[in-house]
Amino acid sequence: MIKSINPLKYFTILIAALLLNLFTANKSNASHLAAFDMWVTYIGAGIDGCTGTTEYKYEVALDIYVSCEGGAGPVTGFISIPYTSATLGAGGNATTTITTADLDTVSELCDSLKPFNSCAYPANQQFKAYVRSKIRIPVTLPGAAPDWVFSWNSCCRNGGITNLLNPSSRSIYVECGLNNVIKYNNSTPKFTVPPLPYICANQPANYLNGPIDPNGDSLRVTNINAFEGAAAPIPYDVGYSLADPIASVGSNPYRVDTFTGTARFTPSNAGYFVLAFQCDEYDRATGIRTGYIRRDAQVSVFNCAAPPPVVDTNFVSGNLTNSTFVKKDVIVCPGSSMSYTAKANSNVSTSKLYMEANVGDFAGSTFTTTGTGTTSSSGVFTWTPTTADLGEHTLIITSKDSTCSGGGYSIVLKNYVVLLIRVVPGLDAGKDLAVCELNPSPRQLFVRGAEYLTQIKWTDINGGSAQFLSNDTIVNPVSSTNQTIGYIVSSPQLTGACKSKDTVFVYKDTSNTIDIFPQG
User: Fold this and answer.
1) How far apart are CA 306 and CA 407, in angstroms?
2) What confidence tens digit (pLDDT) does each residue in 112-143 have?
């Protein structure tokens, strides 16, 4: 169990710990690797896509996390990231030198204990922390290709990992892919949530990835194996698998939301577990895959003695304005000023709850809280999306108790509300259709913009039931008439500033006559 402490108790060992830190902090070995993230961002001229430039300039980003234990130090010094395209038969290396200015320390310890973390004082291994090497390298690719691959690997992983076979002999390998044919200014997706959470055993948990894409492409996240080479997935130890890499309890099995990238589970045992994810992006217009990223991360599960704050996860319309729930997704249209209210509470009387949201991923949004620092807090997220925001967006509202006052904690207890917000364009019934007056053929209607809706209704333009339709509750009914008639398509699920209805006419075309005596 991780126990809370009085920091003054460690005053007598600070000098010794500091001396040990001086001898270990600047090591450039890469043992005890804990997590990798890699992504590619377009930084060239014409980033807005409107100038017609053909400059293929990008920034390769790589974050490497090393667990501060056993004398391990950060990754520093010269680094080379290979990139290659089999289609072009071309490639190269993006190189740089990592200095101490590229390093920082990350942890989820309580504020009072952060100064005593294991990176600052290696003797304090009960206060686990990681040192991150942040690598950013500009690179100009020789041309456009659908299969650019960027990669990096190094040895070694922690020997104490629970779910991998022979972990101490395994390397970490990470890669990402870019298709810059369909868009020269294409960027890969990026995971926005830090990869190394502290989780309590036998408590429901959310592992957050928070995928976003600068180009607004459709994103899909899947659970994958960890790799030690380009085509070398690491086998799981007995009792673990790709379907359940963390031995979750049967009542809350391991599962990944493909849209938000959130893994939900209840771990049954304490230990260190490796989870890995891949996020693929697809062009909305064509469905072509335009890139992908991978994440490899070590999750710390502790024998915590009490649950994190309770959050309200009742996905009901009463929590929303100018938008609606379809199943557990929020549907909203451009121009709708939507809001969502979340609540959190704790049963520990000394708890002090704080709430926050990833408003930085929603241009122009706000998150206003009440009850901050008490046992009951609430927050209101407000946002007015524009047509530039069409697509899927992941809202993450975090509730945390950072008092370390209950259950013997030295970690910040957190819980989350994760919502997928779909910004949709409204309904489009398409162009008017002509039908021949003589011997008319049925005309197929189709409504766009209803991909995520479950309720569609066609009515007559003059009111009342739709006439001559095969089915008035589907997106593609057939109209069988040779009369001019107008239809309205609508959905009660679209609210606020949404375009909740559209019209289409099937009209009689008297110019379509039969030529009895064709020219011969």
Assistant:
1) 5
2) 788 888 888 888 887 888 999 999 999 999 99
Q: Tell which wins on pLDDT, 512 or 356.
A: 356
Residues 227, 130, 42, CA angle at the centre, nearest 5°?
Answer: 60
Task: Count the neighbouring beta carbons within 10 Å of the beta carbon of residue 160.
Answer: 14
pLDDT tens digits for 236-248?
999 999 999 999 9
- Beta strands at 485-490 and 130-140: parallel, antiparallel or unpaired: unpaired
Buried-state track 433-442, b at ≥16 Cβ within 10 A, e below 16: ebbbeeebee
Can you give the pLDDT at residue 518? 39
Region 259-263 average pLDDT: 95
pLDDT over 70 at 3, yes or no = no
* 3-state secondary structure at position 388: helix
The string of DSSP letters for 225-278 reads: --EEETTEEPPBPTT--SS-TT-B-TTS--EE-TTT--EEE-B-S-EEEEEEEE
DSSP character for 64?
E
Please give the pLDDT value at position 475. 93
| DSSP three-state, residue 175 | strand
pLDDT of 317 reads 53
Task: Quickly list DSSP for 315-348.
Answer: --GGGEES-EEETTEEEE-TT--EEEEEEEE-SS
> Are the beta carbons of 46 and 55 closer than 8 angstroms?
yes
Closest among 371, 395, 417, 204 to 304, alpha carbons compared = 204
Cβ atoms of 306 and 406 within 8 Å: the answer is: yes
Tell me which residue of 354, 220, 349 sits closest to 293, measured CA to CA. 220
CB 428 within 8 A of CB 446: no
For the ranges 80-89, 324-333, 509-518, the lowest mean pLDDT is seen at 509-518
| Residue closest to 335 by CA, chosen among 453, 494, 212, 475 | 494
What are the pLDDT digits (tens) for 362-375? 999 999 999 998 88
**Length of the chain measured in residues:** 520
Task: Give strand ranges (E) for 117-187.
Answer: 130-140, 148-155, 171-178
Say if residues 390 and 425 touch (Cβ distance below 8 Å).
yes
Question: Quick one: pLDDT band at residue 27, thresholds 50, 70, 90?
Answer: very low
Residue 366's contacts (CB-CB under 8 Å, 6 or more residues apart) are 359, 381, 382, 383
Amino acid identity of residue 194, one-letter, is: P
Measure the CA–CA gap between 218 and 355, rounded to whole angstroms: 28
Mean pLDDT (whole number) for 351-357: 90
